[in-house]
Amino acid sequence: MTMFGSQWLANAGSTYEIDQSIRFNDDDSAKLSRTPSAGNRTTWTYSVWLKRGDIPGLSKDIFSASTDSTNRFEIQFDSSERIRIFQSDSGSTTDDLVTTRVFRDPSSWYHLVFRYDTTEGSASDRIKLYVNGVQETSFSTSNYPTASYEGDVNANVVHTISSRESGGVFFDGYMAEINFVSGTAKAASDFGKTDAATGQWVPKKYTGAYGTNGFYLTGANSSDFGEDFSGNNNDWTSSGLAANDQMSDSPTNNWCTLNSISLASTATLSDGNLTLSNTSTGATTCTLATPSSGKWYFEVKFDSQSAATTSQAVGVVKAEEAYITGTSGGGIYFFTDGGLRIEGSDTGGWGSAWGVGDTIGVAIDLDDDKIWFAINNTWQASGDPSAGTDPAASGFSSEPYVSLIRNGNSSRTTVWTANFGQNAFAYTPPTDFLALNSANLPDPAIEDPSAYFQTTLYEGDGSTQSIDQSENSTFSPNFVWIKNRDAADAHALFDTVRGATKVLSSNSAANEVTNADTLTAFESDGFALGADVIVNTNAESYVAWQWDAPTTSTNEDGSVDSTLSVSQTSGFSIGTFVGTGSVLTVGHGLGVAPDFVIVRVINGDDNDNWNVYHSALGNTKGIRLNLSNASGTSTQYWNNTSPTATVTTVGINTSHNVNTKTSLAYSFAAVEGFSAFGSYEGNANVNGPMVNLGFKPAWVMIKNADATGSWLLFDTARDTYNAVHKLLFAQLANVEDTSNAYLDIVSNGFKIRSTGNGTNNAVTYIYAAFAENPFKTANAR
Q: For a pLDDT cut of 90, what percent of the chain falls above it?
């Protein structure tokens, strides 16, 4: 066995590094337990970083103290995936807090701090929960303990991590940096801090006193996971844990696992989401997409199958095509009969046959667009990844990929073990090929997305006011899109190329109007408003989405071109052009081909639609932002010509190209870790598609491309927790709708949690998304 070297343990740049975690597999009844002496039962603090494994809709305990099943304190993920904190005395529940939000993001790490202090005068201060440094304030159930109540924590009863003493409800996943402070109510900032560069919550070494029963568990000793490093020697007894449950997966270096929210319905995961069992046809993908460049290696061992078949496979699939089962066409798979499938085409007899007991090595080079497969360290067809020779496939697209394990037979049960490097690899990886973890990901082009995109919420005052941005960074916005959430007022779109006070509405085909009482100025960290109702009604709530494109274009003579403002870094430009009524090309200044273009005449006949180009629809189709119509096919949109790195071809459609009339174009190009423009196929199931973006989105827009349906607008400022349910419509002036839970925002993308025409019928949907954090630095949500 080859142990991972330093390249697998590269740190993610945090000032405080956590080297390992403890893997708790619920199938092994894994737990830590200890019975302390009686201590302070009114005041304590519990801090833990954890990463979820299988998410089965069953209660899973994080921490408990109990005498028996009727006398116990528990912190758990309940059967609805909410955090529940409760105390039961003789079967009667005395304390009971249940969050409104759900916690079902298995791709990254949560930091949870539980602060218990019944000596507080206000009942709501007696139990506090902090998630990633932010106090949780929304609870579906909120029964607080009485003043000076003494619970079971710190009593002379069995305390358990990852279960309860009365049995069952075992946690599944990883835990790290477990701190318990006895007798003192601590703040979340004693255990974590906000990283100044990224705005993300990161670990911080706790340096305070622990109190008599306090402890600090790190998992550093694989032969004694219960060893206390606080100095108190309050050691714990482990059960169901083995030395290989010490994992390099940690809050400061997040490793790839199989994705428990992107599974075929017949599949289950275990062992920290590294072991897969599938009883029918379907494929399972992983949480961490490769970048579009670099060299990457992983292994999959074929553990067992219920009967022989040749249709099992291991490989990769394009991240944007993985969806829920990973069976889309853009993949490269190696089958048990030795054949290949390369983006939908099968090639038989390429390599040797393989089967149960074999380990398949996968090496993918996205610098030169090559992939190799090995059987037990023998690279097939004389391939040599280290030398770059004789690949299984080459010349495919350089874009993010995720690993894939495919069960191709509906009557077979197969079991597999994936290894992305968090365990010792079975074989030495090829030279320069890296494991899939956040530390090995390249630094994103945009470390802090709030420097280029922000959502700002504000209350109208019916007068004049300046609206300041409030996220980690600030900028002077070049494009501001405002919507009244409480009234059926029109959307109001402003940009610096047309100038302040110049209003267009995404829900209207009407011409641009000048209204001096709307957005009156673009300021250094926001914008100024007048009193018009579409932007500033007293006591009504608004949302403003803001993008940065600060660089004006220059003409050949050196003069400023006021018709174009660009940010190549964030892939966004604003431009105006004068139509000719004939096919023409329009410069966008991005330096790469845009994926998403919104264009319309702004001073035409007052009946000009917003036409949208989307790369997932292609150059023969267009779709209208101000209408609910499905996409349409016509040469009049883009003259069947895709945008290039310099220009967008504009057809003769009279909504965006009229002789002598001025048109506006907002152009967006995907930037890895910051923005994405793609499509997914709905499955008409509440266990909907998981769309891997490679970042935690701050803003998502979704549209049914095949049928009539609204443009749905979501953001994490209005919906600060999952499930996301606050909905606005780009083509409608409607007030904000809160009637349904539509999706979960997760650390690497979004997961559809609804059915229906808007997000999840059995049709194609297009989306646009902008990041809150790139996956390299994103915590779970």
A: 86
Whether 538 and 558 map to the same domain: the answer is no
The torsion region of residue 273 among left (phi > 0), alpha (psi -120 to 50) and beta comes to: left
Cα(287)–Cα(284) distance, integer angstroms: 10
Q: Which residues contact 132 (CB under 8 A, 6 or more apart)?
A: 110, 111, 192, 201, 779, 780
For the record, the structure tokens of 592 come out as 């790469």
Shared-domain flag, residues 116 and 160: yes
pTM greater than 0.85: yes
Question: Do 656 and 744 fall into the same domain?
Answer: no
191: exposed, middle or buried (C-beta count within 10 Å: 0-12, 13-18, 19+)? buried
Query: Identity (one letter) of the amino acid at 30?
Result: A
Q: In CATH, what number is assigned to the domain containing residue 168?
A: 2.60.120.200
User: Integer distance in angstroms from the first to the last C-alpha of the chain?
Assistant: 36
Domain boundary among 440, 475, 507: 440
Which tokens hold the place of 192?
A: 């974590």
DSSP 677-740: EEEEE--SSSS--EEE-SEEEEEEEEEESSSS--EEEEETTT--SSSB--BEETT--PPPB-SS
SS (H, E, C) 271-309: CCCCEEEECCCEEEEECCCCCCCCEEEEEEEEEEECCCC
Contact 699, 686 (CB under 8 A): no
pLDDT of residue 4: 36
Residue 317, phi then psi, degrees to nearest 5: -140, 150
Q: What is the pLDDT of residues 273-288, one digit of tens each?
A: 999 998 888 888 999 9
pLDDT value for 407: 83
Domain membership flag for residue 218: yes
- Token pair in block for residue 519: 């957005």
Q: Are residues 160 and 184 in the same domain?
A: yes
pLDDT band at 11 (very low <50, low <70, confident <90, very high): very low
- Confirm whether 752 is domain-assigned: yes
The backbone torsions φ and ψ at residue 586, rounded to the nearest 5 degrees and listed phi first, read -125, 125
- Residue of 530, 562, 311, 297 lying closest to 412 (CA atoms): 311
Q: Are residues 657 and 740 in the same domain?
A: no
Residue with tokens 């209003």: 503
Count of domains for the chain = 5
536: which DSSP letter?
H
Residue 400 lies in a domain: yes
Following CA atoms 61, 64, 66, 71 in sequence, which dihedral angle do they give, to the nearest 10 degrees?
A: -70
Is residue 163 located within the same domain as residue 277? no
* Rounded CA separation 163/70 (Å): 15
Indicate the residue among 247, 277, 300 that finishes a domain.
Answer: 247
* Within-domain flag for 259: no
- Does position 144 have pLDDT exceeding 80, yes or no? yes
Residue-range definition of the domain harbouring residue 159: 23-247
pLDDT in tens, 558-603: 666 679 999 999 999 999 999 999 999 999 999 999 999 999 999 9
- In which band, very low, low, confident or very high, does the pLDDT at 1 lie, cut at 50, 70 and 90? very low
Cβ atoms of 113 and 96 within 8 Å: the answer is no
The mean predicted confidence, pLDDT, of the chain is 93
Domain match, 207 and 305 both = no
Asked if 469 and 416 sit in the same domain, the reply is no
pLDDT of residue 554 exceeding 80? no
The predicted structure's pLDDT at residue 345 = 87
Query: For the residues 504-512, what does the mean pLDDT come to?
Result: 97
